[in-house]
Write a structure and sequence with these properties.
8 helices; homodimer; globular; about 40% helix; five-stranded parallel β-sheet; Rossmann fold
Amino acid sequence: MNPKAVVLLSGGLDSATALAVAIDEGFDAFALSFFYGQRHQVELDAASRVAKILGAKQHKVLTLDMRPIGGSALTGNLAVPKDRPHDQLSSGIPITYVPARNTVFLSCALAWAEVLESFDIFIGVNALDYSGYPDCRPEFVRSFEQTANLATKACVEGRGAMKIHAPLMHLTKSQIIRLGLGLGVDYSLTHSCYDPLPNGKACGHCDSCILRSKGFAEAGLADPAA
Amino acid sequence: MNPKAVVLLSGGLDSATALAVAIDEGFDAFALSFFYGQRHQVELDAASRVAKILGAKQHKVLTLDMRPIGGSALTGNLAVPKDRPHDQLSSGIPITYVPARNTVFLSCALAWAEVLESFDIFIGVNALDYSGYPDCRPEFVRSFEQTANLATKACVEGRGAMKIHAPLMHLTKSQIIRLGLGLGVDYSLTHSCYDPLPNGKACGHCDSCILRSKGFAEAGLADPAA
């Protein structure tokens, strides 16, 4: 029987790759997505397709509505910034940052891991392209792992140690794409855009679209979802 | 202007006392409750009354439905244990434990604190009466505080350090009751029962009812909600 891992899956390029890595490493993958009040459901549809195609054992969507606390362009009425130059994308913290999002998502993954008796959680965070997000940095991931080991029944009872895997942490976007392609990820199924058009297509102008497009260009490939 | 604090408020005896402590210490209190799939809404009604009477500046209820991941008598179909002897209440981890609940709740409190530009979170956890819950121990709270300081925009930008206050950590239930009475808490408004009767009254037989009743008895008082 394979060990179980909970994999945070947004439906974007990074988390799809993290899911493929988890499965490639021999885990039975339990994919976890959130309806957290995001502007669009397109990414949840993408998560569902990706989980199925890559062979996750289960895919659950938890409802955690962050809208009442506000504070982000992704859940509120603030405008998503468009056409920012590349060199501005990694300076400062963008208003698309959702407060404490990865802490919240990892906590929910921890809850499911505890129920599954799993000691492994995968998250597709990346310190290079998203250096503006504090909860994407290696020191944050390491600290959360320590907290997780003090928080859970199985760890306190000595049945195992929780490990937070962040296999994309030090890769560039083009390295992530090449890694995923090598593992059979079909990026045409993924969705990265913060502010999709009414037909569900990517806007091509938000930070996430710009980083994705740059990644495919640097890998010398066309984006199959473009 | 007073500093702001986010206070986790379940509507029970402990969190009502933690709210009173936060206000007594000079904070403007922003109370946060959850609909997490609990069996009853009685405790959310209690939270709302307590927040209002004690003078919280705001009270928000976030929806975070933990039922899809299961694993607890408080959110699933497992029976809530009744009439357990006192000496069993603190041995082992009860099935009323909700997986990773305090990690999840503190993460959401952190998100709101970030939006409010607050650096203080209060949680009414207690290591004595609830020693069976791993996420009620001081080492867990300290570790979460470290993680919070790495997770948030304001901390990374050097605007402050996040502090997790657990003012009830080392108090017995009767000490908590005396502390709260001294601060004007009306415990008739609070609700502690895990499995209330159809009329909303406490069952009197679950672990939480037994601990509450023991606390009032040891304080030499009658429970005004009984």
